[in-house]
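Feature request, filed as a ticket because there's no other form

It would be nice if the structure record came with a short human-readable summary line next to the tokens. Right now we just get the raw output. Example of a typical job, pasted below so the devs can see what we mean:
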Amino acid sequence: MTDTASSSRPKVVLTRPLPTCILDEAKAAGAIDLKIWKDAERPADRDWLLRSVEGADAVLVMMSDKVDAELLDRAGPSLKIVSCMSVGYDHVDTAELKRRGIRLGHTPDVLNAAVADLVLLLILSTTRLLPNAKRTVDEGRWPQTPWAPLSFAGPSLQGKTIGFVGFGAIAQSTLLRLLPLGPTRYIYLNSSPQPFDLDNPKFAALKAGGLERLLPAYEAVQGSRISIENARDLEDLSRQSDVIVVLASLNAKTKHLIDGRCFDHMKPTAHLVNAARGPLVDTSALVSALQQGKMAGAGLDVLEGEPVIGASHPLLSDESIRDKVCLLPHMGSATLEARRGMSELAAANVLHQLGFAHLVEGRGSRLVQL
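Raw output as currently delivered:
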């Protein structure tokens, strides 16, 4: 048995070095023993994790770390919390955590601005045909591509309808960023019907962002009313939207929520953006819809099967559709500020649960209700 395992101090396992020193400071203060996977660029080795988690009181994991019954069995009854450095936790067996009475921490809110910025980037990249334009330059075809009246011309967002599948804080932050670009209608779907009411806490991000003040100002500038309303259902949203933005949570009910039927209802000029989780969209149906011209393009920060997405993937290899797709490597939260905030909150979740809230004074914790 190692000194760490025999120590009376709580044992914390960390599966990647963090851009914060909170846990290191807790270790230096003698509050915890800390076991860290040292390679910042490579996911923790599964065998290392299974060995290291034995007798642990807490484990702080990344999206690449699978937390299942095998890992929880190896940790044993001492494990009090699994803290994720992510908002989503589809890599965690929540039923097993609930059965064993283990808490689950995650990192919502601190990355909202970063993800909303990236959603806006994807919307503009796809509607303005950036993949095609950039590939023309990268492949040296610009000299052979003379200017034409409609070369690289995509639709403006002015007067368009934006549909949100999932209308939490990130979606609401995205809406605030879209206002200056001129869409006049925003429709949304949540897990349950929620008529738009700015005094409803469900729309707190819009209220905090000053929508009450911004809306009349932009209506005056644009000379038209801007509406925000609950769509009847996914078919209704699909039929009406010029851009569909997927920001829902992934669970058994929402896997492949965006499927062939959804694509059948879309306008052929519409674009899809997914910055939530890959399996929310049926990739085969997406490829087929693009090939058949049922939609104009897709901006994706996530994709089923990621990160094992090679050059042979049809979204990248099919010449008929690859210029319609902007695919990014799941980097929605990738600002220095957001990643630091996520790491600090993930660490604070651990220390709060282990009884060391005084070491993270001023930082709260965010636990999932299992």
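Something like this underneath would help us a lot:
The chain has a mean pLDDT of 95.
The radius of gyration is 23 Å.
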